[in-house]
Each structure stands twice: as structure tokens, then as C-alpha cells.
């Protein structure tokens, strides 16, 4: 479970998060929506202790993320909007294997995870490709595969479909379905609700650093006329 309690974050004088409280239970498929600058990315960066709270706390499975950031980063797989920044190795296979190798898994298990994660993003068999020779969309898919290969209990994807072609999009949606079915909690930060609305258990909307709506996707019909940018 990811639990955010009264979280506030400032960048200088600007308040990016203003008293956000939110609990994401295990196994939930949650969409995080809201206009540009509403605080979505700032919020999810706190899940992995990549930012220091001004006030408030974030706990993952009961542990404060600032006390044990490594535990949070192992439990929560995260893919950000600038995926190239997340790639650490020269080739696709080495990059996706990097996280599982750090978990100390044996070679057979690492190879299985890499192959499975690359299949999920429609890059099966591309282990030897150089990451710098890939398109931006392909690099985004490698970053997603890297998070999938960690087999985290929670997966957070920030605008994962930006730059993905239809085939890769379908492939990733299908993997999200199987992960959700297997009990992984999934948080998708998105402006693009296509194909996601019907999959989600819940939609949380932020505006000006606050939670302004929190409910089932069916409630979205009520949200959109009030200007919460769901991107439909
Ligand atoms: N590193 C930073 N330094 C200064 N201000 C920042 C920084 N990162 C974010 N902000 C500000 O914090 C606020 C929230 O930004 P954030 O990126 O979390 O919003 P967002 O909802 O993810 O936006 P988008 O949909 O455009 O990605 C914005 O006003 C933004 O300008």
C-alpha cells in the first residue's frame, strides 16, 4: 500500500503539492489526472523518495520512504516522462537486465525477466540493439521494460503512452491487464484516458497541488465539465 499523508512540497515560493492525502491499496489500478502543473509528477516522485517532503509523509507498505528509500524503490517500479534519462546501459538487453542483476537474481531468471519485459513492450528479440540507435518511442519502451523486469508490487508510469505507436500501446495495455490481474497495483499519470478509463478502479484528479476529485471512472463524467483535464 502507498499512503500519502498531508504531503506538501514547494519549489522555492511555488507550492507544487498542498496537503495531499491519498492511499493506494495493493492491487488497485489508479489513474492520476489533472492539468499541466497540477503536481502529478511531483507527487509520484515522492513515492520513491526522489524529493524531500516539505511536510507530511509517504509510506510504502508501512515504511516511511525517506527512512528506507531503497525499499520504496524496490517495491515501486517507476517510469518517468524523460525515459532516455533512465537508461543506464549501452544495449537494450543490458539495460533491462540492470535492475534484476542488482537484485542478485540468477542468470536464468534475469534472462527470463528481460525476455518477458521486452515482449510486453513489443521489443522481443532486440536485446543487442544499441539504445542510442533507438527512436524516442523505442527508448521509452526500454525504460518501461526495465521497470517491468523488476516485477515490482507497485508500478507507476508517468505518461507511458506518449510516443508509443498503436502496436506498442496495445502490447503495454495487455501487460498492464495481466499485472493488474496478478495483483500488482498500477498508477498511471496521464492526459490520455483512451483505453485506460475502462481498466481503472479509480481516478484521482489534482489541481493546483490538491486532490480535487477521487472516485471511480464512472464519476469522470462529472469531473470533465468542471475543467479537470482528462485529455479526452
Ligand atoms: N524542478 C522544479 N523546479 C521548480 N518548479 C518545479 C519543478 N518541478 C515542478 N515544478 C513546478 O511544480 C508544479 C507542479 O509540477 P508537476 O511537474 O508536478 O506537474 P504535473 O501535473 O506533473 O504537470 P505535467 O502534466 O505538465 O507533467 C508546477 O508549477 C511546476 O512548474
Automatic annotation (TrEMBL):
- The residue ranges of the ABC transporter domain are 2-228
| Membrane topology according to the record | Peripheral membrane protein
- Alphabetized GO MF terms: ATP binding
Keywords noted in UniProt: ATP-binding, Membrane, Nucleotide-binding, Transport
Which PROSITE patterns does UniProt cross-reference here?
ABC_TRANSPORTER_1 (PS00211), ABC_TRANSPORTER_2 (PS50893)
Q: What is its main location?
A: membrane
Query: Is-annotated flag, keyword Protease?
Result: no
Q: Which domain of life is it from?
A: Archaea
Is ATP-binding a UniProt keyword of this protein? yes
The record's annotation in SUPFAM superfamilies points to:
P-loop containing nucleoside triphosphate hydrolases
Q: Which InterPro entries match?
A: AAA+_ATPase, ABC_transporter-like_ATP-bd, ABC_transporter-like_CS, ABC_transpr_CbiO/EcfA_su, ECF_ABC_transporter_ATP-bd, P-loop_NTPase
* Family membership: Belongs to the ABC transporter superfamily.
Q: Where in the cell is it found?
A: Cell membrane
Organism equals Haloarcula saliterrae
Name of the protein this chain belongs to: Energy-coupling factor ABC transporter ATP-binding protein
Q: What does this protein do?
A: Probably part of an ABC transporter complex. Responsible for energy coupling to the transport system.
